[in-house]
Amino acid sequence: EEIEQLEIPPLTNLQQLSIRAKMENRDLIIPVLPALKRLYVSVCYPKRNTTSHWIPNLAQMTALETLTRYSLTLPELRKMSCYLPTQIQELCLFDIRRDRTEKADDKQFWTNMKSLTQLKVLKIPQMKPTKVFMKRMKRMQLTEFALLDDRVPSPLAAMLPEMTHLRSLSLSGTGKPLAAALAECTQLTQVNLDSEKPQEMESYIAVLPRLPALENVSVYKRNPAPLAFYALHLPALTQLALYVAKSDLPAFGGFLER
Predict the structure, then answer these.
(1) Which position has the higher pLDDT, 164 or 68?
(2) How far apart are CA 136 and CA 130, in angstroms?
(3) CA distances (Å), 173 to each of 74, 93, 200, 234, in order?
(4) In the predicted model, is pLDDT for residue 173 greater than 70?
(5) What pLDDT score does 218 carry?
(6) Contact, 38 vs 53, CB < 8 A?
(7) Separation of alpha carbons 51 and 71, rounded Å
(8) What is the per-residue pLDDT for 1?
(9) Contact present, 71 and 45 (Cβ < 8 Å)
(10) 192: left (phi > 0), else alpha (psi -120 to 50), else beta?
(11) In this predicted structure, what is the pLDDT of residue 174?
């Protein structure tokens, strides 16, 4: 059932707020919440050329550490990037809708993002960082990272080995250039291989044995995992998510036994 309007009262001691609702973005009102540390918002996509009215209030939420949002458009992203508080440590933005004229490496958005120097978690898997922002990323202490990069050669690939604090990485869009860099990130404990291209996925799979600390692996789950995956030996693995083809069940059984 669709909600007509939701107005959050100005609760000065509120530290965590999670909103999941079928409603127009303009009908959600979030005031300045000075003690808020974690904010999760999932509402309907904004209508064309409209943005959420409450976004400017983010700038005054000086305790905010974690922000997660779903169902976004590029105008919404641009506006929000102008008001994100600089102390924020975790930013996760999913299900971003762009039209054909809008680019994933939107210059205005990534320029505004440069002020977030305390980020430790950055997950925007449908946006592609500009080269200027990636240079800034080297000085961040990012531990979790999920972004798109389909450029060849990949500037992201050249930078990954320098991100020594990185523990969790989600890969999409680059194939062999990034797979080679992935092999150098031996400190990683978690990888999400989010690619629907068979050759690209196989290039990622081939380097996983070179990551001795790997505990958590997620393989693109809309297609069966490559058969080559079941020949791997990952001694530190404790969590696994993947789609197993019926014909690959014997090989999967052998993988589990190892």
Answers:
(1) 68
(2) 10
(3) 20, 18, 8, 24
(4) no
(5) 93
(6) no
(7) 12
(8) 56
(9) yes
(10) beta
(11) 53
In sequence order, the 6+-apart residues with CB closer than 8 A to the CB of 45 are 25, 71, 72, 73, 97
The predicted structure's pLDDT at residue 179: 81
Structure tokens at 182: 């992935």
- Do the beta carbons of residue 121 and residue 147 sit within 8 Å? no
Nearest Cα neighbor of 248 from 219, 234, 228, 222 is 228
Task: To the nearest 10°, report the CA torsion of 69, 71, 73, 77.
Answer: 0
Task: Tell whether the torsion through CA atoms of 128, 188, 91 and 96 is positive or negative.
Answer: positive
Mean per-residue pLDDT, 45-70? 92
| Secondary structure of the chain in HEC code, one letter for each residue | CCCCCEECCCCCCCCEEEEECCCCHHHEECCCCCCCCEEEEECCCCCCCCCCCCHHHHHHCCCCCEEEEEEEEHHHHHHHHCCCCCCCCEEEEEEEECCCCCCCCCHHHHHHHCCCCCCCEEEECCCCCCHHHHHHHCCCCCCEEEECCCCCCCHHHHHHHHCCCCCEEEECCCCHHHHHHHCCCCCCCEEEECCCCHHHHHHHHHHHHHCCCCCEEEECCCCCCCHHHHHCCCCCCCEEECCCCHHHHHHHHHHHHC
Q: Which sign, positive or negative, has the C-alpha torsion 243, 249, 251, 255? A: positive
Kindly list the distances between the CA atom of residue 208 and the CA atoms of 95, 103, 213, 252, in Å, as whole numbers in the listed order. Answer: 28, 31, 10, 16
CA–CA dist 251, 172 (Å, integer): 26
What's at 55, amino acid-wise? I
